[in-house]
Amino acid sequence: MNVDEWSEIRRCHGDGESIKGIALRLGMSRNTVRRALSLDSPPEDHRRRSGSVTDDVEAQLRELIVADPEISIAELSRRVHWQRSRTLLARKVKQIRGELEAARQSSHRVAAGVPAPATTFVGRRVELRELRRLLGEHRLVSVVGPGGIGKTRLSIQAAYEFRRAFPDGVRFVDFTAVRTPGMLAQVVCDGLALENRDAHDRLPEETLVEYLRNRRMLLVLDNCEHVIDAAARLVTRLLESTSVLRVVTTTREYLSIPGEYVFNLSPLPTRGQTGGAVELFTARAAAVLSGFEVRDGDIATIERICDRLDGLPLAIELACARLTVFSIDDLSELLDHRVSVLAVGSRTRSPRHRSLHATMDWSYELCTPQERRLWARLSVFTDGFDLSMAVQVCADEELPTEVIIDSIAALVAKSVVRREECDRHVRFQMLESVREYGQDRLTPQERNELNARLLRWCVSAIRATTSGWYSADQVRHVMAIDRNRGNIRAALEAVISDPHDHSAVQDVAEALGSAMFLWACGISVREHRMWLTRIIDLPAVRVATKGHLLAVLALVQVLQGDRESARYSLHRARSIATAESDDALTTLLTHLDGLRALFAGDFDTARASMAQAASGYIRHGSPDDRIAMLRIHQGMLFSATAEIDEARTLFRTVHEDTAAVGEQWFHSYATYGLGLVALREGDFAQARAFALSGIRIQQQFGDAVGTTLLTELLGWSLAELGSAAHAAVLLGAASSMWGAIGQQLYGSEGWIALREKAIHTARTHCERRTFDRNWEKGQSMSMSDLLDFVSAESSSESSARPDQPRSEQRLRTAHAQDELLSPREREVAEWLAQGMTNKQIAEKLVLSTRTVEGHVEHVLRKLGLERRGELTAHGIDRL
Predict the structure, then answer these.
(1) Which long-range contacts does 413-421 make (Cβ < 8 Å, 24+ apart)?
(2) Element containing residue 43 per DSSP (H, E)
């Protein structure tokens, strides 16, 4: 119990919350709550971190299993000197094997979690090799250097090329858009797709520790300098709490924590045509100027240009953008003049900073007045922007819409703004150094006005999730939130952390109080709850608005399974609704109380409350989305109580109504409901089809609850259809997800019976070892891994024969192909076939040479070969 917890306990108890409710909401024992209430001041926090008895040896187990997947439990026990229960050890080994199998299944994807680079990788091969060597010796490497030197580009390439060395994956997390130090752990959770592991009683940092504790993973944290203290604390905690995690940070200022190796990134060498600044200049010039070729005599001029720019990649790229106007010789002469002038007037800057600043100054001066003004204004976006956003936030009489469109095109051509295209949607981004340069060109008044405009855009986007939710534009509104999480976080944090502008606080509160489904738009359930909690008690929030905020908070708490906290929020909201005579709010609260009762298994109360809410919605003329939500919840209630006809009628009504208007989110829940009805009636193929259809729709949203429901339904259906191996994976994944959200299947006896029946059926159709392995594999999956697995199931054909579905045939075939060599041994064999030495392979895979030697012995023994040259001669195809 720390100071904050002690204060929160006393405040909530003073507001009338029960000791049990406080204990459940804060994730502590009731005795701890009682002790806090008995103390006049908070005690020191002496709690020990909890963990499993196998934690101390898990890292060793993982390494041994990676080296030899066929190693026996007895041999593992001997190697790690295990003195405890053999069953406990066996259970941990199953878990590790399941996690490694899940990682292996996803290893064919191109560096999942690593952004696609906008440019080719040029000139840093030496540094890349050095970074690989350092990661073999150190758990934390900080790539340090000034802005524009290429830290991010190097780290992206490292993440891509090193991914094979990390069985549990590589993830790249960009902190550029994070302006709230307390959000760092949540942003990393988002980057790891850990929404399915969210739990109301655990901080994001604890979720990360639990997930990463014994995973052999590479985590790249980019742009840490503006949150350096928080980043240092988070990385310290992760390294202290994990065993084999490797971390790479990129920052202008190193973290200054124990175990950090500081890798100072130097400028590119400016001499020589390959492997340095000249090669980069040539590549970027060819991209800017069609048909560009280096002629005799050009090398010396290019070297002089790169010298003037101190070999800084960003400065070189900005200079190359001018080749549409100048020749190489002109460019060289102009740069000589510009850098020399700047050096005289800027003695306090480092030479590298002078070079970059000179290049940006020059690029700025060569822009038109409108382009300069727009450059500065676009710096308000911390997380990129699209054309519509640029117009809404930056346009005025000085910069009308048509000028902004032309100016953005010109800034893209000058390499000031970068154009990115994803899913046929174009967005623009500014590198952090370029954005900071633009910010410096704004006056305080201009900066405040732009921040206010961005806030208005964010508030409008949040409100649109309410006004446009039940429509064909729903997904567009969802993507607007998802793509702009950084901008929204920055805008909300600016208002909530410094709530002097009461009007802005009220605008944000009203938006959050209306957006009931923000947690399905890329903002996680945990983060949604955090914003609601932080704004509810601000003095500027009107009482009526607070009631709606509490209602949304109660919904989020119910979805997390935190029913005691939800009861407290509903109690506070109901008091406000009564005082304000807000009948519509009272009806919503009655609905949510029914939902809470449903998930608690109190079906009689749920039935009565939902019926009362239905009458209230009709009486008050409530919007379509609330009526659809109530019908879904009533359908779930009737499904739980085996009133199948009533459930079908409600689900079908929502299914048809949403299809008529093009709404998709409620449509996915209605699809789930129809699948559940089909399952209860024995039409398992139809249930499977509904489940797959619902999951396909859900992939457009960030809704862990809906995805979990549909995953469960798909697992039940496949078990009945005989696809036991796939069913085990899905049931394991659903079990993990339910455990994080709340009670398994919300405590419904009917649904639990369906789950148990599916498990029993799946076990009878495959070996126990196969079921357990696949169950563990499912439990170790992240949300993105699960969706990839379901996508493969969706593309599968119907069963080849009743006793062996084709999807399971493929799984068994893939397993058979892997029985000869382990995944790591196959990688080593591939490099052996190319004639590489043990040392070269170790460097390539970020392994020790001794470990590679062991892999080589295993490969040759398993393939019946005496010399490595035999594998080189015959090639890897024989595998």
Answers:
(1) 413/321, 413/324, 414/318, 414/321, 414/322, 414/363, 414/366, 414/367, 414/371, 415/288, 415/317, 415/318, 415/320, 415/321, 415/363, 416/318, 416/321, 416/363, 416/367, 416/375, 417/378, 418/118, 420/118, 420/384
(2) none
pLDDT at 656: 95
DSSP-based helix, strand, coil % in the chain, nearest 5: 65, 5, 30
CB 826 within 8 A of CB 863: no
At 820 the pLDDT is 58
Could you tell me which of 381, 391, 508, 376 has the C-alpha nearest to residue 445? 376
Indicate the angle between helix axes 125-137 and 838-845, nearest 10 degrees. 90
- What is the Cα–Cα distance from 864 to 858, expressed in whole angstroms? 10
DSSP annotation string for 688-752: HHHHHHHHHHHTTS--HHHHHHHHHHHHHHHHHHT-HHHHHHHHHHHHHHHHHHSSGGGG-HHHH
| Distance of alpha carbon 735 from alpha carbon 98, whole angstroms | 15
Cα 879 to Cα 867: distance, rounded to the nearest angstrom: 16
Residue 759, H or E segment: helix 749-764
Sign of CA dihedral 148, 151, 152, 154: positive
At 812, is the secondary structure helix, strand, or coil?
Answer: helix
Adjacent-strand bridge partners of 862: none
Phi, psi of 218 (to 5 degrees): -105, 125
What would the two tokens of residue 281 be? 């200049």
pLDDT tens digits, one per residue of 466-514: 999 999 999 999 999 999 999 999 999 989 988 899 999 999 999 999 9
Please give the backbone phi and psi of residue 533, each rounded to the nearest 5 degrees, phi first: -65, -40
Alpha-helical (H) ranges within 218-276 are 228-241
The per-residue b/e assignment along 728-740, b for 16 or more CB within 10 angstroms, e otherwise, is bbbbbbbbbbbeb
Residues 6+ apart with CB under 8 A from 195: 189, 524, 525, 702, 704, 783
CB 743 within 8 A of CB 599: yes
Calpha distance 245→240 (Å, rounded): 10
Per-residue tokens: 46 = 């002496």
- pLDDT, position 319: 83
Nearest to 404 by CA among 388, 420, 380: 388
Distance CA(466)–CA(380), nearest Å, equals 26
- Residues with Cβ within 8 Å of residue 432, at least 6 apart in sequence: 147, 176, 223
Low-confidence ranges of the chain (pLDDT < 70): 1-4, 15-16, 24-28, 42-56, 59, 63, 66-67, 98-113, 118, 195-202, 272-275, 337-355, 423, 738-750, 795-821, 823, 848, 850, 866, 870, 872-879
Residues 107, 385: Cα–Cα separation, whole Å: 32
Helix or strand run (H / E) with residue 372:
helix 369-378
Whole-number Å distance between alpha carbons of 95 and 82: 17
**Secondary structure element (H or E) that encloses residue 425, with its range:** strand 425-429
pLDDT tens track for 54-103:
666 776 787 677 667 778 888 888 888 887 777 778 878 877 776 665 55
Return the half-sphere exposure (C-beta side, CA atoms, 13 A cut-off) of residue 484: 28
